[in-house]
Write a structure and sequence with these properties.
The protein is α/β, with parallel strands linked by helices. Helices cover 47% and strands 13% of the residues. Strands 3, 4, 5, 6, 7, 8, 11, 12, 13, 14 and 15 form an 11-stranded mixed β-sheet that branches. It has a two-stranded antiparallel sheet with strand order 1-2. Helix 14 packs parallel to helix 18, helix 17 (430-438) packs across helix 18 and helix 18 (446-469) runs parallel beside helix 19.
Length: 582
């Protein structure tokens, strides 16, 4: 279905009592999912897919007739029946009759259908007396999120594996935000710990520190104290941090460090040398506490000048750090490209509302797809719109918190954090699903890579269109560590159907082929982090430096992580059913 055929948020709907309310397509999807529950076959994806068909016909009819509750219901029943779902159409119609005449005048059949469809029973969570409290409390929070934050259709898609909703243990916060001087504690002596205490009120999963060397200069702490307080604070708050170092340009708030004696009266050339020295000092301190880096990832920015012979020493130093197993992402600062700070975040987009995974292998295995390539591609738009619905529901939940808490919700209201927040949608199992659909991996055949790029292109297009309809910036990108799980920790070799992000996932490919795949995928998505599997068990710094230089010459590659593989991991592995099991 053409994306332009879906009506936007402009139309209003006249309710039965005469009120005009904004048109909300999600109401149709939720009602259709409830109807699938009523007939004993709950299917969130079917509800979303049928909704897209309804919206197509509504877009045509709206040119002549104004939208009313009754006219929408009539179109839903007609379209659902014509699309081969007569039982589902009748279940939906039963609820419409209840609304029109009241439950006391319904037939017994209609009363049974509408009751089973729309009652919302209390959620009961059972646990044993020996269940540890540190397991029970997070489980309660996750159940709360799935029932209080999200509607039943989105929660069902999460349980079915079509979507992966993250941040369920922090429902009252945004997923991520960029640390800025506005988050500094009133008492500057509180340092990094004080800042994390402030920012934890708004961020539930991770933070990005833009220009960490400048932040360090502003706080005027010793490097050892700054790094120690930061890592301790991250453990205490259970946040992850992307520490951006060696950026090609200073953060927008760089003028704020003018009060620091470090930069007073210094010219730009001297300041550049000093900030480079600060970045190196912070890297040294981080290297001293490698066991504590579970919550930290270093984003080392690279520009063209960093590949010159005069800077080879610094490049080799950070490569040594990465080859020793430290969590490093190399960020390419290319001309006319936004400077990435973390997945879904740059200087124009400092906050992330939520991160939603798209289970591509689950969609390929769905009975309505059954591994057929054309059908799979056609249904990607419905899956993307389901993810945007999840983002809208999280945003509305946080807005309700703002209204109910008043000044207590200032953390989200300050600086329009919620209104500016971005939804990050992550493809999960891209390599696996391409192999399922074509019989080849992304880097093995040009036709397979073409299918992979088409998947990414369609998802990005659908997300952009659906997001604009609801005034939500939705983008396609990756995750902190190529997994979509909430719990921190680096699982560097997930099975191919669980590998998250805009990247290939085949350790057997040569570096040149891996770069070719990543460049094509990142160009289609406009974002992404490449997983570069080292072809040698113990590569040298010189080899890794050559790989980075080749990546820089692949213009579309945005970010890159070096992954060290072991001999037993030469073959691509799959979790659950193998792709040839279809």
């Amino acid at each position: 279905m053409r994306e332009s055929a879906i009506p936007g948020p402009g139309p209003f709907v006249r309710k039965r009592d005469g009120r005009l309310v904004p048109f909300d397509p999600d109401k149709i999807a939720q009602a259709l999912f409830a109807a699938t529950e009523a007939i004993g076959r709950p299917d969130a994806f079917l509800g979303r897919e049928l909704t897209d068909g309804v919206l197509y016909f509504l877009a045509q009819e709206n040119e002549v007739h104004p939208l009313t509750t009754q006219s929408i219901a009539e179109v839903v029943v007609k379209v659902v029946r014509e699309l081969g779902q007569p039982t589902l159409a009748e279940a939906f119609a039963a609820f419409g009759r209840q609304k029109a005449v009241g439950p006391q005048l319904l037939s017994q059949t209609d009363r049974d259908l509408s009751s089973r469809t729309y009652d919302r029973p209390d959620i009961v969570l059972r646990f044993g007396a020996t269940t540890p409290l540190n397991e029970y409390v997070p489980a309660c929070t996750r159940h709360f999120s799935l029932n209080a934050v999200y509607h039943r259709d989105v929660a069902a898609a999460h349980r079915d594996g079509l979507l992966t909703l993250t941040g369920l243990e922090a429902p009252n916060q945004l997923a991520s935000l960029t640390l800025s001087p506005a988050h500094a504690a009133t008492d500057r002596a509180a340092g990094a710990l004080g800042e994390l205490e402030v920012v934890r009120r708004s961020a539930g999963q991770s933070i990005a520190i833009d220009g960490a060397e400048y932040r360090y200069a502003q706080l005027t702490e010793a490097p050892t104290s700054f790094v120690r307080d930061l890592t301790v604070g991250l453990r205490l708050t259970n946040l992850q941090a992307a520490i951006n170092l060696n950026s090609a340009s200073a953060p927008p708030w760089v003028g704020d460090v003018g009060d620091s004696p470090l930069f007073v009266g210094q010219g730009s050339d001297i300041q550049a040398v000093q900030t480079a020295e600060l970045a190196d000092s912070l890297l040294t301190e981080l290297g001293e506490i490698k066991p504590a880096l579970q919550h930290v990832r270093i984003h080392w920015h690279l520009a063209e000048a960093d590949f010159g012979p005069e800077r080879s020493g610094r490049l080799h130093r950070i490569l040594r750090f990465a080859l020793e197993g430290s969590p490093v992402t190399f960020v390419f600062n290319r001309p006319r490209m936004a400077q990435s700070l973390a997945e879904g975040m740059d200087r124009q987009h400092p906050t992330v509302l939520g991160v939603v995974g798209l289970g591509l292998p689950h969609l390929a295995r769905h009975p309505r797809v059954a591994g057929e390539q054309g059908m799979f591609l056609d249904k990607l738009g419905s899956l993307a719109r389901l993810a945007v619905s999840a983002g809208v529901q999280k945003r509305e939940y946080l807005r309700r918190l703002e209204r109910s808490w008043g000044s207590g919700a200032a953390a989200l209201g300050s600086g329009f954090l919620l209104d500016r927040a971005r939804l990050v949608v992550v493809p999960v199992g891209l390599e696996c699903v391409v192999r399922m659909l074509t019989g080849h991996g992304l880097g093995e055949e040009p036709a397979a890579l073409k299918v992979g790029c088409e998947i990414i292109r369609r998802l990005a297009e659908s997300l952009g269109h659906a997001g604009r309809q609801v005034y939500l910036d939705a983008c396609l990108d990756g995750t902190f560590d190529f997994t979509i799980a909430d719990t921190p920790g680096r699982q560097l070799f997930p099975a191919a159907d669980n590998a998250a992000g805009v990247t290939g996932w085949d350790p057997a490919l040569a570096v040149a082929d891996q770069l070719r795949v990543a460049g094509a995928l990142h160009e289609a998505a406009g974002a992404g982090t490449m997983a570069l599997f080292a072809p040698a068990h113990a590569p040298t710094v010189e080899q890794a430096s050559d790989w980075l230089a080749r990546a820089w010459k692949t213009p579309a590659v945005r970010r890159l992580q070096l992954l060290m593989r072991h001999p037993a991991e030469h073959q691509l592995t799959f979790g659950g059913d193998r792709p040839d099991g279809l």
